[in-house]
Amino acid sequence: MTNRHLLGIQGLNPPAITSLLDLAENYVLLNRSGKTQRDLLRGRTLINLFFEDSTRTRTSFELAGKRLGADVINMSVSTSSVTKGETLLDTAATLNAMNCDLLVVRHNQSGAPALLAQKVDASVINAGDGTHEHPTQALLDALTIRRRKGRLDGLTIAICGDIAHSRVARSNMLLLSMMGNHVRVIAPPTLMPAEIGALGVSVYNDMAKGLAGADIVMALRLQKERMNTGLIPSEREFFAFYGLNAEKLSHAKPDALVMHPGPMNRGVEIDSAVADDAVRSVIKEQVEMGVAVRMAVLDTLARGTI
Amino acid sequence: MITLIRKVRLATPDGLTAGELLVQDGKIADFGASLGNPDGAEIVEAHGAILCPGLVDMRASLGEPGYEYRETIATAAQAAAAGGITSIAVLPDTKPAIDDPALVRFIRARGEEIGTVSLIPYAAATRGCKGEELAEYGLLKAEGAVAFTDGRKAVASIRLMRNALAYASGFGARIVQHPEDPGLATGGAVTSGARATMMGLPGIPAAAEAIMVARDIRLAELTGGAVHFAHITTAEACGLIRQAKDKGLHVTCDTAPPYFDLNETAIGDFRTYAKFSPPLRVEADRLGILAALADGTIDAIASDHQPRDADDKRLPFAEASSGGAGLATLLAVTLAQVQAGTLGMIQALALLTEKPAKWLGLDAGVLRKNAAADLCLFHPERSWLVEAGKLPGKAQNTPFDGRALEGQVLGTWKAGRRVFG
What we know:
Chain A has 306 residues and is α/β, with parallel strands linked by helices. Chain A has helices spanning 14-33, 56-67, 86-97, 112-119, 135-149, 167-178, 207-211, 235-242, 246-249, 272-275, 283-303; strands at 45-50, 71-76, 102-107, 123-129, 156-160, 182-186, 202-204, 216-219, 257-259. With 421 residues, chain B is of the alpha/beta class.
């Protein structure tokens, strides 16, 4: 494939995903061995351009870049302090002048990284745009699943919670379906996007039914502002019917894994007992995989194309 | 001054007939198979091109007043002339909104000053197009306001819409509605569906149009008022309007080229030049619009011209301004449906000339002796390339960039004066 950027899972194919995961696997071992590869991206500049607050994704990219020897610069731009949009293209011009090689972008608007990619010379990596995509999250989730289950096909994967506003859900649906898994989405109808069934996923409004026989259960973060827009009546009602607790999880397979992209709202979309379950929860492992996957993405794009 | 346009195919309601047309003193002096050699006539040899009445665009936004950075009336007039358009009904949602008799006069006067295109002002349905209080329909109409509308904004309040329809009916005036229920449409960027879901863009359900259309048809029935739905985009709304017309209600509607030529896939990879309000719909709706054009449910094709500059469009999709430049491409995009066999040539031209002229109450839109010589000469097979950056006028925000279109305007006359070609 010939993508100079990583703007989404859409546009990738299974061989490209597999080779990224294989490379990431090597970085997991390397990271665990304590060795580094500080010559790979030496002299390259990676800019973390975050228009939206994020500690974990930014830190993960920063660590990935530094472990490969890149010069990493963090730029946080508050969208409220400047006129929107103007900043984006002005920023693109500024970045071009800085000869940035790799540009990691998070923005609250769907499509903003794609717009930047048209204007900058650097390779753009989408670190989450609006409610569109978050490709490195889907890749790290895939790596976590593959390592734990030994495969990335034929699995039943239930994604539950605020599907409508989740870029993580979109990227995961795309990736996991493309690799040959059965993807289910579970949400109250007001948090389910229109015609999502057309994307090849099974749609459920009931946790017990949606989780039945699942190999993997992914809970999504519920943005608290959804309550104000009349989509759900209260946190407690959401937790009662859609919060992942031991009782609901009992409908999944006995060895089902629990995942969450973080940061968690404990007692809203996930119960602490489930989140901290040492056997079933792989939430901490997801964070570790995140660094490895981002190293693989940076490495691949710095060499050429995905 | 006398001009003889020879070897044309004259577009009359009865069909295309080979012949000639004579312009004298700004009027159509005569037309027919052969008009001889009038003394001193300037001869235009047309080599078999079609001569039709100047196009009547029943709805466009011009940048003036308030958005001159996008377009001025003068530059819009250049685009109109190049598109064969000789009359434009102008939307009132400018800065300030056209809600005062003096502003109605201003728009008309700007048209007369420029002289290449008649500007027919709409006036605001509510003061400031704010949707709160009725505008002064009687006074506005007396100054030449042709109908009342809040432009790209729906009259949302059902109570206010009822009053608007009832009050306007006392002056024999129509209310033009932007057919989207704001409760469902506000914040939306594209039509709801699988594509919106995948792109992570907020969707506007097609039902937002049907709900508003159904509501206002019922209000027209309640009040005896006349409602016109601007830029209809869905098959469902067409069905509702068809039923209302069968019942004999005062209901009319128009659509615009993007809605019968493009569908939601034109958005591609967050292409903001394909962002419209209402949004481009799914293919089934596009086909529904074509069917409603063919069966006469839709009364006219408007350019729906909305000038925007690059800064309005080069933004993340949801933040970008909606609307496309439509004057220069109105004829050719419509003619594509003649080539496709969906519409007959005379039928298509009537949707651009005779029917909107009749709706607006203009003495235009049909070739008639002693009528003002507003004419459009075009070659239906000659093709041209739509290139953003090279369109006539200032606004370059076309959704048809890169398209080769058949149907090129060769000449435009306004009241006998050649204003293009």
